[in-house]
Amino acid sequence: MTSGHETDILLRPLEVVQKLIFEDNLSIADISTHFQNQFPTPAALSLIPALTHTSLPRLPTGRLVRFRCMVQDNSFNAQEYFHTMTLRNTTTGAEHHVSTVYRDTLPEMDGWVAVEPDMRHFRAGMVGEKHPVYCVAVPAETEWVREGEVVEEMRRMSLERSETRGVGGDDAPVAIDPRLHVKFPIKDDANTVAALVKTYGSDPQFRLNDAIEVVGVLEHITVPPTPSDDTPDMTIPMSAQLEFPPDTAEQAIFTTVPRIHVVFHRVLSQLDLNPAAANVDVKDVDLEMWREEVIEVLKGYLGGDAMAAEYLLLHLISKIDHRAPDDTPIGYFPLNLTNIPTDADASFTPTLVTLLASLLPRVHRVPLSLTALNEHTWIAPAQKHAAGNDEAADKLDMGLHAGELQLVDGTWVVVDETALEDGTLNERGISNLSHLGTTLRTAKLPYLIPYGDMTRDVDYGVLVLSQGKCMFGVDCTLPLRPTTHGSTRLPPFPAQLLAQTRALLATLRSPPTSYTIPPAMVDTISSDYAAHRRAGETTMDMQALSTRLEVAKLVARSCGKHTLDTACWERARRLEVQRRTRLREVAVGSKGKRDGDADGDGEVAGR
Fold first, then answer.
1. Helix or strand holding residue 239 (H, E)
2. What is the CATH number of the domain that holds 316?
3. What is the per-residue burial (b if ≥16 Cβ within 10 Å, else e) of 524-538?
4. 187 and 66 part of one domain
5. What residues make up the domain containing 518?
6. CB 309 within 8 Å of CB 575
7. Backbone angles phi, psi at 439, to 5 degrees
8. Contact assessment for residue 301 and residue 351, using Cβ atoms and an 8 Å cutoff
9. How far apart are CA 284 and CA 274, in angstroms?
10. I need a labelling partner for 404 at 20 to 30 A (CA). Which of 186, 442, 467, 529 fits?
11. What is the pTM of this model?
């Protein structure tokens, strides 16, 4: 790609499209291929400015941009539009044709008006379809992931300064209407941005919560003026919308949201969303040494508890592999750490969340405080959440309202039960807890819609922090047993180990080879289970066996193995025996404390 053509595509993509349509006679599919061929590598793609909350004020209408985002709402109707419009000079009567592909409005030009199409000569080929979806920046992205976009943005600034002079489209973007904040999953995320994304041609069938990267033409919309009575019958204002009929997506409130007319796109995998994923080859790493080093650092954040550190590491490489015929998520491994310090060290939970955010690309903490549950959040997305006393907002059709758990697969959700307090849940709070419980138990996110609720499969990592056993029935529960005080200086994550761990957590979660259990190991597992049952261990039921098998798979995965062997099975067996022993000890201790309180505190008990 020559530098001149590169500049045209980046700064004046609509001019390039006009030429490709009228001079080269290319179709929309051909144009998409042409643009993709200009950016064949990640390095070339990085030349296209990313739409972010910081770059948006500087990006004018008509620029080529890329947007890494999540599909928040796909309920809008397809829109029909005329491929071509005719402009007429009001002085000379001269006419010329302009393409309306990748735009919703025509720019205002003195002395020119758009001519209303003559419907008497209408042909099906004159009309195309575009498919709008509402997208938001990928929610809960952590700081180290966003830093990459910031670096690229600074690198492009010199190009923008030197080459944007004279380029049309100096219109500043309008601030998003505050009422549309209901479409942001995380309401207090200062880094979020939204766009109405429109694809052309066949419908790509984007699903809710899909992570996508789109490359297209940016457009900022202003509300078109109402035509006056003396407007000629055969002309329409240049700023008029070019599709028909208008629907929810074209309400005035949506004109405050930038639009991206997609030239090409791709659906992103969990690995695509992790910039560290390509930075390591598992074959080049001594995984045993890496495991020891990471567990040693994690111990410091868990009060010196080595078993909790190992379970946390296994939890961080878990993911749903598939669903059984009864829809059970296979590979789902939520973890409940109990006995979390609160009174003596209120910094424990935020410090642990900060650690996770330094290792993972997306982390979101859900504090279960009364205020949050009763007033501030909606856990599940809904066609319309109650707008309180705002009757005007309640009448607006803004499509799907986001829920706090409307996130991209691979996001880590930290449910903070330590924020619980005495009080009463209202109807909203009860609903939030119910939907949170459904998501945690089934790995399905409820969507509340007028004609009946629906659910969507999700793959979130779920870590529950609580003082006692959590209210949601997590199968793998581990009481924390600190050996150091919370104020002890936490061990730093060495920079090289940190970078390596980010990459390995991503790679180990998505192994290239399927996991298998050889026939010999099946026999060993069956013999072990039978021996436990013969010994009268009633706690070794099918659920306990299922958890042990999952731990064994994660132990093997953490060692870079795709086949279960005796060493990994024995390691998993020891871990599970130790965990269940600790659970019994905690249960006995709690019972003894309750009995002692009943005997020695009769005055309080009799009140």
1. none
2. 3.40.50.300
3. bbeebbeebeeeeee
4. yes
5. 511-607
6. no
7. -65, -45
8. yes
9. 20
10. 467
11. 0.89
Contact yes or no for 316/385 (Cβ under 8 A): no
Tokens linked to 370:
């009364």
Query: Angle between the 287-301 and 348-359 helix axes, to the nearest 10 degrees?
Result: 150
Write the CB contacts of 457 (distance below 8 Å, at least 6 apart in sequence).
320, 323, 329, 443, 444
Q: Dihedral, CA atoms, 496, 500, 501, 503, nearest 10 degrees? A: 140
Whole-angstrom CA distances from 53 to 149, 159, 500, 545 are 11, 20, 29, 48
Any domain includes 272? no
For 202, which DSSP code?
S
Residue where one domain finishes, among candidates 246, 267, 288: 267
- Look at residues 262, 263, 267 and name the one whose alpha carbon lies nearest to residue 34: 263
CA dihedral for 411, 493, 336, 350, sign (positive or negative): negative
Closest listed residue to residue 45, CA positions, set 156, 145, 137: 156
Reading the block at residue 269, the tokens are 């995998």
Residues 258 and 357 in one domain: no
Residue 410, token pair as written in the block: 């691979």
Q: Last residue of a domain, which of 510, 530, 559?
A: 510
Residue indicated by tokens 């003396």 = 230
Output the CA–CA distances (angstroms, integers) from residue 225 to 103, 240, 252, 430, in the order listed: 18, 8, 11, 46
The answer to whether 552 touches 568, Cβ cutoff 8 Å, is: yes
Q: Nearest Cα to 401, choosing from 452, 457, 450, 458?
A: 450
Q: For residue 503, is it within any domain?
A: yes
User: Are both 377 and 256 inside the same structural domain?
Assistant: no
Question: Block means of pLDDT (10 residues each) for the chain, length 607 residues?
Answer: 71 95 94 96 94 93 97 93 87 88 87 79 80 97 84 54 45 78 92 95 95 97 53 47 57 89 97 88 89 95 95 97 94 96 79 96 97 94 70 72 97 95 94 96 93 89 95 94 71 89 94 90 92 76 92 96 96 95 84 53 33
Residue with tokens 């059709």: 397
Peptide bond into 446 cis (omega under 30): no
* 3-state SS assignment for residue 349: helix
- 80 DSSP β-pair partners: 129, 244
